[in-house]
């Protein structure tokens, strides 16, 4: 076997091995968003492969066919050929544009695109707030106007096979919410909401991270997205709601106890009746009588009348 044939065989073997390797950039199809993007990539690939083979084949043939011509003749004008490749290029670009528009206008890919609309049955609404350096998730149920039924930090839980509407914002800085496996990515700006719509199709745990450099702790803005069955998701939301309710009740009871303690300390009913009489007769003479009744409270906070009467008669006569 000649050296040239060995080289061609090695090149062919390397090409086969390259085709057998799974691409690193490929993401598992875990949501309708990823499925839309993946289908677009595959459709464009099906068109690009024959074009690439055709163009490269022509180049290889030309190099091989005219390799020994020291003084090649200039290419003559061929209008038919020019019109052919111009029309072919226009058709290819038109196909790429139409296929891309159908995907980009899909609400699962671009929720805020003009004309993007989808009929959703009982979608889940979740608000995501980014901050330095972490994530907070608010599960609002059937509408963003409702009070959050459950809250969490660091781990976002989603129900499988159910539409999810997400709005992303930031508390302090520029961030970017990104979950590659679900095909989700949106910038997080303070005072502004960016929307996402998806439908998870596979249960599992997927990586979440910030895709916008936001400071020294940027690399720490990691999280997880857990896609779970609907019944487990409902159970988790109910547990979070119960814990929030119990926490609120404990806070209310603590406030009531503090208020009662304050009433016992500062609001003790005290009643004092004092009768004082003073008569002055002789020069520099004074007679005084005092009667005092005092109501003393018991420990329960109720005032009981305990008459304590003191009759004091003091007469002082002073004659100069």
Automatic annotation (TrEMBL):
GO terms for molecular function: copper ion binding; cytochrome-c oxidase activity; oxidoreductase activity. Pfam families: COX2 (PF00116), COX2_TM (PF02790). It is found in: Membrane. Keywords: Copper, Electron transport, Membrane, Metal-binding, Respiratory chain, Translocase, Transmembrane, Transmembrane helix, Transport. Residues 237-320 are annotated as: Disordered. It comes from the Archaea. It is a multi-pass membrane protein. This is cytochrome-c oxidase.
